[in-house]
């Protein structure tokens, strides 16, 4: 695939300079850590409410290489950034995201649950995220439960094309999902945008499964509980990169450095890169 060629050099460099190659180092140095992509999971979620501008702004301030966002759709067709398929956990409202209009979603307080200082934070739109952050940081876009939102892939593709973010020079956009069929569709719609598959299932780490993923995906993104050196080597051998989630402790970050992953998806960007 043409997009595989675009990231092949990055894969080779990551293998050459990964922490695994530093055989005599007792641990990763700050210089080594900068070679691993630092992905702020739903923003700097350890310190600010997830999937809000406050969280994303903080992630940029903390020098994250990417922000990770979760994408769904309102009842009236607006692409919105929220993780759960209901609004109950992270807002002062109740109900399914897809059953609420954009106006209803926008009226919710998405920050107070984290801390009073974040009162009034709103659920962002996809377009707002793209316009505010592209060119400032990478954006890892997760299609959350796309099976609930028929046609969402075409909407995402249109929004990216409108901003010329579907072109090879803009490799700081990555699409991912637990829904593999959705990612196959995105690969056809945006053949030059890197595609990632998410899993926490060891059944998806077999040689056969990895080979299948490699026919359309550029990233294999497993939960860190199933990451091994052998898995990392297998993923790299298939010309894919590997990003693992979700890091909420320094120990988990250090483990993934030792495994030689290409990206660490974390609630705490400072665990991956100590720069302030």
Descriptors:
276 residues; alpha/beta
Describe this structure in words.
The chain is α/β, with parallel strands linked by helices and 276 residues long. It has a single domain, classed as TIM Barrel. The protein is 34% helix and 17% strand. It has helices at residues 2-17, 30-33, 53-61, 102-106, 126-133, 152-162, 180-189, 207-213, 229-237, 250-259, 269-272, and strands spanning 37-41, 66-73, 79-81, 138-143, 173-177, 195-199, 219-222, 241-247, 263-266. It has an eight-stranded parallel β-barrel with strand order 1-2-4-5-6-7-8-9, surrounded by five helices. Helix 8 links the parallel strand 6 (195-199) and strand 7 (219-222). It is globular and about 50 Å long. The termini are far apart.
């Amino acid at each position: 695939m043409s997009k595989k060629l675009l990231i092949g050099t990055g894969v080779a460099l990551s293998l050459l300079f990964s922490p695994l190659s530093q055989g005599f180092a007792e641990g990763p140095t700050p210089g080594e850590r900068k070679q691993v992509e630092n992905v702020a999971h739903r923003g700097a979620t350890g310190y600010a409410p997830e999937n809000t501008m406050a969280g994303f702004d903080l992630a940029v301030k903390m020098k994250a290489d990417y922000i990770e966002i979760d994408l769904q759709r309102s009842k009236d067709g607006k692409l919105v950034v929220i993780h759960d398929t209901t609004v109950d956990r992270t807002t002062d409202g109740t109900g399914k995201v897809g059953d609420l209009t954009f106006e209803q979603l926008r009226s919710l307080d998405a920050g107070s649950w984290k801390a009073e200082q974040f009162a009034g934070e709103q659920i962002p739109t996809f377009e707002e995220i793209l316009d505010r952050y592209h060119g400032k940081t990478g954006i890892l876009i997760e299609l959350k439960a796309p099976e609930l939102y028929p046609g969402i892939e075409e909407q995402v593709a249109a929004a990216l094309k409108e901003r010329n973010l579907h072109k090879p020079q803009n490799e700081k956009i990555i699409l991912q999902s637990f829904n593999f069929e959705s990612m196959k569709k995105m690969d056809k719609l945006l053949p030059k945008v890197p595609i990632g598959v998410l899993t926490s299932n060891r059944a998806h780490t077999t040689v056969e499964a990895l080979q299948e993923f490699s026919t359309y995906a550029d990233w294999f993104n497993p939960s860190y509980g199933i990451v091994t050196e052998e898995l990392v080597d297998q993923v790299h051998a298939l010309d894919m990169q590997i990003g693992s989630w979700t890091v909420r402790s320094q120990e988990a970050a250090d483990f993934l450095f030792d495994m030689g992953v290409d990206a660490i998806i974390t609630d705490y960007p400072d665990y991956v890169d100590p720069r302030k």
